[in-house]
Amino acid sequence: MITNTELEYKGDLYPSKIVSYTHDVDSIYFYTDNSVILKLTVLRDSLIRFRFTTKGYFSNDFSYAIDRSHSHGYNHLEVTEEKTYFQITTNKIICKIQKVDLRASIFDLKGNIILEDELGFHWEECYEFGGNIVKMSKASRDGECFYGLGDKATQLNLKGKRVENFATDQYAFQKEQDPLYKVVPFYIGLHHKQAYGIFFDNTFRTYFDFCHERRNVTSFWAHGGEMNYYFFYGPNMQDVVTSYTDLTGKPELPPLWALGYHQCKWSYYPESNVKEVAAKFRELQIPCDAIYLDIDYMEGFRCFTWNKDYFPDPKRMVSELAQDGFKTIVIIDPGIKIDKEYWVYKEALAKDYFCKRADGPYMKGKVWPGECNFPDFTNPEVREWWAGLFKELISDVGVKGVWNDMNEPAVMEVPNKTFPNDVRHDYDGNPCSHRKAHNIYGTQMARATYHGVKRFSYPKRPFIITRSAYSGAQRYTSSWTGDNIATWEHLWIANIQVQRMSISGMGFTGSDIGGFAEQPTGELYARWIQLGVFHPFCRTHSSGDHGDQEPWAFDEEVIDITRKFVNLRYQLLPYLYTMFWQYIEEGTPMLKPLVYFDQDDIQTHYRNDEFVFGNQILVCPILEPNAQGRRMYIPRGEWYNFWTNCLVKGGKEMWVDTKFDEIPVFIKAGAIIPKYPVQQYVGEKEFDELTLDIYYKEGKEKSVVYEDGQDGYDYKKGRFSFLSFQMTGKEKEVNIQLHKEGKFDTNYTKFKINFIGLPFDIKMIEIDNEEIVFDAKSYKENQYLIVPKDFNVLHIIG
Ligand code: GLC
């Protein structure tokens, strides 16, 4: 029985000396005396893969995480043999491999050490299952910091922590509880202004130890599989994260409505209840784009069926909701009820698509419907079948999104909460046990769901959300952080988890706003909405067994706060959509923890609460009851308080006053923030102006706005509009240069410009070097300018 394997153990084995090496294009193979081979592959000048075997040969190279379209290619690769080591030099780094024991050390081109093996690769043979427990240890330096690892519910900087990766249904998890639902074996190290990353692409149960067991050692190990990891060189965290995201893939753009507000509960039923909830949003004028049907819409929790007592005519209901701007999203779990009369069960049985135990019987376990079998989503033929099952839901009924849950996979009433280890999986033609497939089961389910929903939604875009995920899942799906609790501590956790997911390549994430388990007070709910509207995915969800969690379950003040913040999110949709575009184009995280935003400022290294939403909006939630404000760190640079428009100089911690209907929000000086009018749902209104809030700064600042048809795939054929504004502020003038790319023509024809912090009175305005009529009196009254959207240079003179 393997337990929490300690890093070092007497039975550990180590590579012995290198006896030969070969160099084959981008890969260098080092062979040791005791049958260890290190295959070192240079993917890019700053990205190296290390792959070890102890058998004398490599098994088939297969990964679910790596995106086949990732960029590779380097400018320079040179291998030289020195007396005691081999040296691999690229355009960015130097890597030395010791002849005596295969240990690696990596340097920048100036010779500064970036990362060095401590014991390096070692392993323990595993008699029970065969193969090895593979281990790696690296030397860590004082002051080194660590970030990443997906959804861990602990402080952002992981220094001093040990974490475990094993996808787990962790109902009502606690702070520091580990493992949780997601598995992202990727971390970023930061030391002396140099950042690097490690992605340990191994789907077995893995562990990372960041100077927890030994002060100056970082290590990671897995219960099986290969020591197979990627090293990313920064030196900026931006480079590490974007490179990791490039390697494991980016999503397509979601439909814009998916960035709106979503309302969920376990469960809204029958139809009249769903309609009532939807109508109340419209009555109270709180924008909402999506409503969810949790497991009770099904007939006895059988996926792809409807309870006809509750929902006699789903198609009519879905279309009536759609007429009012609501998209219907339904839950689909992996467990298929064992029921000889049930069509999905019968099909899967006939085709032999369920996972089997080692000795042949189907894997059987209890979930919501009672005893279930589970499709083997690691089999491509099963995925294809599963995708086809969505035809009726999407094409006929008109459902717009699918919610995959319980896909860790969760099994009830068993101590390990999941499949036993011996369950067999196809693993895309690399048959294996559940030990290897467990962590990617949920991702393969979401992948199959994505393909199905996409196929039947076409030419519209699909929307998928999953609970469990492994690195790379972001290519197919968004995610939420699982079954949290309505406590202040969980608000803190949600803030960390979503930031952490963002720098772990999986940015389209949110938490159950208000908490899933237990009942939030109105105050807690309000504080959670105030944070939630700044998360890429924004949904209220609750277990529903303790009262309601719609905004109107609370008092008037909370309803008003909810409306105010959801309105703000809808106004910021073009800004949010632009963030998303930067994420899919460049791999840029949508939320930036302060350390990511300014790694050179050591004050940011241990900050948890503040983050930058996109590139120019600094947000800090209120995480305590009865707060009149809070202390927070303002990163370097100049920032406008969003509520008061007062300018503050950053690089310091300060107290910020807030009322109950505010949280600290600051806008970077120089930013141009695009806004739409408030709409009750995306596409409700046609409008002729895009609002631009221009925050004056002396100096230069660039801002961009991405727009397209808000759904569909024309954007991939160049039908998008990308505006890039270069603003230059001087003592008595502001100059804005506008550059436009793309073939999409937005409906609006004008910009409505608000100046914030302009230090002079406007006397004259020129557009493309020609003076236009400027009505100073009307400007004074209205405080905005209307200008045509097609200018090249806008010149404001004081
Ligand atoms: C799980 C999910 C939760 C859902 C419930 C019922 O607990 O995490 O979001 O509401 O199952 O389907």
TrEMBL record:
CDD domains: GH31_glucosidase_II_MalA (cd06604), GH31_N (cd14752). Residues 587-673 form the Glycosyl hydrolase family 31 C-terminal domain. One of its GO terms (molecular function) is hydrolase activity, hydrolyzing O-glycosyl compounds. Residues 251-579 form the Glycoside hydrolase family 31 TIM barrel domain. PROSITE patterns: GLYCOSYL_HYDROL_F31_1 (PS00129). Belongs to the glycosyl hydrolase 31 family. Residues 689-757 form the DUF5110 domain. Transmembrane segments: none annotated. It comes from Flavobacterium glycines. Pfam families: DUF5110, Gal_mutarotas_2, Glyco_hydro_31_2nd, Glyco_hydro_31_3rd. Keywords: Glycosidase, Hydrolase. It comes from the Bacteria. This is Alpha-glucosidase. One of its GO terms (biological process) is carbohydrate metabolic process. Residues 38-209 form the Glycoside hydrolase family 31 N-terminal domain.
